[in-house]
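Feature request, filed as a ticket because there's no other form

It would be nice if the structure record came with a short human-readable summary line next to the tokens. Right now we just get the raw output. Example of a typical job, pasted below so the devs can see what we mean:
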Amino acid sequence: MIRDGLTGLEFRSPGHSSSDEKEEENVQSVAEFQPNLRVLNRFIRWIDQPQFHPLYAKPWAPRYKNDPEAAMCEASFWAVLHDCGVTVEPNPNTTPDYVCRKDSVKFYVEVTCIQIESATRKTNLKPMPEAQKATNYRSLNEAIRGECISKTAKCANLDAPCVLAIGTFHAYASVVTVNKKFLEWLLTDPCIGMDFDPRAGQIVGESYPVARLRKSLFTQLFDIGGVHHVRRPISAVLVAGFGCDPPRIFGVLNPFPAREFDPRLLERIPFCVERTNLLKGEISVEWIQTGENKGVGDE
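Raw output as currently delivered:
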């Protein structure tokens, strides 16, 4: 049981023990949602502080009971921010979720969760891999893009940058789909291009990647009107696979945000940046900050 401020909630996890926390990076040993008890207990000590507004702290316990994945996602991203040296407070206006400060810089964080069931449906990956069986799968990018579309309004009309933090506890998807290559595709929306010689009536040369920008997160190319910068209230996106140990966490910067976010505030996290060469008509991506990407709650 926990402190009186959030009593009535026991944090037990079948099959989860301290030995689980020492595993190398891998999927969890069971398919069911498994909260990181170390992170959870740290979060509860933090949120139960008397100086925080009760409108945020008191509803969290029943939210954990009713929707443990979403509630634990809030706790996990709190731990990520805390371990990056960020001072975090619950937002008294309830949205975005957190008001953050570091080095006299203020920013907001809105947290959302791609549920295990939803990630299974989107990726065609079962929560746990099947031994010696190959699987055709899709990335989580459509689900990530959907979260960005639905959460843009919550990041708007603020006095500081807003980071949208998207997490999943789907074990297999955390390992397979939360990686640099798939996150680069969020910015470029790539396809394969080929040159066609109309005189010869055939394709010539080698195929090459093309940035299509039809479904990219922040820069989109339309047939009428050219390039548009969309979802500008979201300054950056964090994507975390909390289903593996240690978690996989990466950032994606909006190249044309309403308010710029400095990724050095989260120096432990690698960020993907879009680079545009107008003279060559080329779009590329670059990763900045190698990041330690240690498991949250380790400190």
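Something like this underneath would help us a lot:
Residues 4-288 form one domain.
The chain has a mean pLDDT of 82.
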